Sequence to fold (342 residues):
Amino acid sequence: MSVMSTTLDADLCAAAQAHPNIALIKYWGKRDVPLNLPVVGSLSITLDTLWTRTTVRFAAELPADRLRLNGREDAKQLRKVSACLDLLRARAGTGLRAEVTSYNNFPTGAGLASSASGFAALVLAADAALGLGLPPATLSEFARRGSGSASRSIFGGYVEWALGDRVDGEDSVARPIVDAAAWPLRVAVAITSTAEKAIGSTEGMNRTADTSPYQRAWIDTQEADLAEARAAIAARDFERLAAISEFSCLKMHALAMAARPGLLYWNAATMAAMHEVRRLRATGVPVFFTVDAGPQVKAICLPSAATQVAAALREIPGVLNVLETGLGGPATRIAVADAVAA
Ligand code: DP6
Fold:
């Protein structure tokens, strides 16, 4: 189908689903803010039972883009969504505006990477609606423009987002390194607050870059962490992955805590859950933690320990809920009817 005939179609509508991902080796800091180019590479796992489902409908009668997120009009996210759609419109040679409807089956904006699954699903749905069929690397690049970590949610399993060195960012895209089924770890997410976080990732990482005295050390030490994590994953060496992942998490928080004013994403229950994970590991339970720019604790474990880990986290005062999930696949197209029945 030519671009012209595509843009003249009556109903340019498609839906997609994407999963959030959790970084084991963290992304924190941008070398180019508008392009969302990172100062470091990062490595993540994509989850399975948590999802964003998004429908995008381009239509001539729409005077402007519209976004409904979890059943409500969302003006706050609309600017970023429009900017992301502009990338796809430019490829399709169309000026059509779009109506975007998106649902998350997990709390939005609480350190659970809803922007990652959100922009990955958006880009894939828009690509399908416009009949573009862009390659996954380009979808990853466009998702990155919406939110850095979204570049990784285009793919399933173990995923690495390359630092890249081009100024246009075309080489700063994610790629899958190992399938979820090849090493099916489990994740228990301890929810310790459902409030929207006070300082979002973008603001937090920009403040960190501007004021934290540890920024240079963060950048200089990341490549070694990535190499260590890649080796641990290739060898399916859980203890090795546990050590490097906790190191990267604590190093990122130490860096951010040293910003001015310092960024404190943890609450008392976050801290208690981290201690509990370490206590369990000391007794031989294969589990480690990671924490992003919010108060939730993600406990990653071997499947044999999943029930015990989730039960232990549920006992902690201040833990409101524990979500249990495995590792999931890439962003996929789904039927429009399935996207609305959230
Ligand atoms: C702590 O991808 O949400 O979760 O690029 O500004 O949208 P923007 O930030 P975002 O940051 C994620 C930060 C992190 C670490 C990670 O996911 O690697």
